[in-house]
């Protein structure tokens, strides 16, 4: 049931049981996090504020020392190396551009080993790729936040490091720019063969750019997989609701079937006994029915589809229907679950 799996890539980064407990923290910020990353692979660390994403990233970068655990890059233990000795690229939220250097010189900074003409050409190529041609001579303070962010990206990608760490790199871009830039960055990384770890709390961004997503909750990685795997088979109510929207039901499972208040339904994987279940809003059909036991209590038109909130007894269910369905708030309906439901841990 776990779908397509790309061919395994050579292992680039291996993190084993990383732990960090800050002096004044109640609970560890990061607790036994283990992750593998293949060469050229793009991984998103996804989770709500405070779940330990940034601390994990900072330990990989060498800006924070783990209490326990190891980090290896290309098979070499780098756990206690300083950041500059790790050969890793960074793009952080505050970009850290050199304020006194021009845009071109900022991007050229990591290319000092190249002959000057080559470095300039490479820097200009990177600036063109991030859509900033013509701004070479400006200083960082003469740019918008979004433009500074793109200079920081260009500077990091110019040296094509084997691994790039990115902490919310698109946070200062407007919505349209963000969608475009993240696809460009993905293309740039893939073209350069660089792997990347992206910290984000935005599930749509994680699904759009990452090959795999590690979902974090309270310092732990609770699920890791491709966006499809995690969306189709979330392991818990937390993951189901964090990646997409979900209705959580209960039922009594027996093998590949489960008895619920919506009747006997097929399960996506075998389970037995009392279970919680995830049902995606698009897996529910809404049928107008004057004798129906459910009623529509809310509607949101989204252009390509519509969200409906439907009260069925004590429970409010979220349903997504096509844009064409003409169902008014207040009307009686019948709900039908038309797909496998997912048993949760
Ligand atoms: P956000 O999305 O808000 O940046 P995050 O998932 O990146 O959140 P972290 O920044 O890793 O989370 O923080 C994890 C926990 O560790 C939080 O409870 C935070 O308050 C705590 N923490 C982070 N840095 C420090 C520090 N230097 N000293 C003490 N506690 C810290």
UniProtKB/TrEMBL annotation:
Family annotation (Gene3D superfamilies): P-loop containing nucleotide triphosphate hydrolases (3.40.50.300)
One term of GO molecular function: ATP binding
Keywords per UniProt: ATP-binding, Cell membrane, Ion transport, Iron, Iron transport, Membrane, Nucleotide-binding, Transport
InterPro entries: AAA+_ATPase, ABC_SmlMolc_Importer, ABC_transporter-like_ATP-bd, ABC_transporter-like_CS, ABC_transpr_FbpC, Mo/tungstate-bd_C_term_dom, P-loop_NTPase, Transp-assoc_OB_typ2
Pfam families: ABC_tran (PF00005), TOBE_2 (PF08402)
Stretches assigned to the ABC transporter domain: 13-243
UniProt-listed PROSITE patterns: ABC_TRANSPORTER_1, ABC_TRANSPORTER_2
Origin superkingdom: Bacteria
Protein name: ABC transporter ATP-binding protein
Native species: Roseinatronobacter alkalisoli
